[in-house]
Design a protein that fits this description.
Elements lengths: L10 E6 L6 H16 L3 E6 L7 H13 L5 E4 L4 H7 L7 E4 L9 E6 L2 H18 L6 E6 L5 H16 L3 E2 L5 E2 L4 H14 L6 E4 L2 H10 L10 E6 L2 H8 L5 E5 L1 H16 L7 E3 L2 E4 L4 H15 L1
Parallel strand pairs: 1-2, 1-3, 3-4, 4-5, 5-12, 6-7, 6-8, 6-9, 9-10, 10-11
Antiparallel strand pairs: 11-13
Helix pairs in contact: 1-9, 4-5, 6-7, 8-10
């Protein structure tokens, strides 16, 4: 948090994340804090609910901060965009949507995030190539999803599906498993997949790395799944390490640090009277064992430089 004294010159920004418990969101937090640390005239308050299904908890946080007179702008990663749209209706202070957009809300000055559908599609195109190289002739894919209906989750699912189908594979949509973005539930989902497909499946894709790693752990020692491609999304340091250790095959690495940093930056720009672009895109990178070490070094360097 900034050491700047609270005064009329300090821009106070409320950042409300989707959760404070996942490693990806710790990167978002680090990016937001880095912007704060670099600017003495900015003070950032960061919070998030206990999980991505703690809808009421997040709504309460947003309501509290919107009703507080001491914030100048808001950076919100909505779990339920339609509900958030209602909560911010008529708000005159700038609002920035983070990670998922809040469609049709004139109060939202910009959306900062990754083009999730395009990034996921790119990931699955790479996964199909990897599956073919691993010896699979029938490319079937099943997704272990996050929270059903959550916009980022749905965008990634759509991208995964088009990436598989357009590469000649078969995305088994009717067999999609929902694990609420948690590793524990992903374990049960993977057990269910093995029961239905004892012969193995070419690709298991997941909405985040925690779920992909948990799913791969379940098939340890199962010859039918020995060459299965396990693809996650997020790209945190733990995922890089998991890829290097053979505990995950690949990931669609989203730069959460960059998203957090740009989110606060966009809020400050709006407060200064500038009009940010409608969508501020943060890049995604496909990471495999070939480039995991290099990508991990980049992530760690960014953290050490700015935090």
């Amino acid at each position: 948090t900034s050491t700047a004294e609270s005064s009329g010159d300090v821009k106070k920004i409320s950042v409300i994340m989707k959760t404070s418990s996942a490693e990806y969101w710790q990167y978002i937090k680090a990016g937001a804090e880095a912007y704060d640390a670099e600017h003495d005239d900015v003070e950032v308050s960061i919070k998030g609910p206990t999980s991505e299904t703690a809808f009421e908890e997040q709504m309460s946080m947003i309501e509290t901060d919107i009703n507080a007179a001491d914030f100048d702008a808001y950076v919100i990663a909505p779990l339920q965009p339609d509900t958030v749209k209602t909560l911010i209706a008529g708000e005159t202070r700038p609002v920035v949507a983070l990670d998922s957009n809040i469609e049709g809300a004139p109060e939202v000055k910009t959306f900062v995030g990754t083009g999730n559908e395009a990034a996921a599609k790119q990931g699955m195109e790479a996964a199909v190539e990897a599956a073919k190289a691993a010896g699979w002739t029938e490319i079937k894919a099943i997704e272990i999803c996050g929270v059903q209906g959550e916009p980022t989750n749905e965008a990634r699912k759509a991208g995964y599906m088009s990436g598989i189908e357009e590469s000649g594979g078969d995305f088994l949509e009717e067999e999609t498993q929902y694990a609420d973005a948690t590793a524990d539930r992903a374990v049960n989902c993977m057990k269910a997949i093995i029961q239905t497909h004892p012969e193995g499946v070419a690709i298991i894709c997941a909405n985040n790395d925690d779920m992909a790693i948990a799913a791969k752990r379940v098939v340890e020692g199962n010859p039918a799944y020995e060459n299965t491609i396990f693809c996650g999304c997020g790209g945190n340091t733990a995922a890089m390490q998991a890829i290097l250790n053979g505990e995950e095959t690949m990931t669609v690495a989203v730069d959460g640090y960059d998203v957090g940093y740009r989110g606060v930056e966009a809020a400050v720009n709006a407060l200064e009277g500038n009009t940010p672009d409608a969508f501020i895109a943060s890049p995604a990178t496909i990471v495999t064992i070939e480039n995991a070490e290099e990508h991990m070094a980049l992530v760690q360097e960014k953290e050490n430089d700015k935090v």
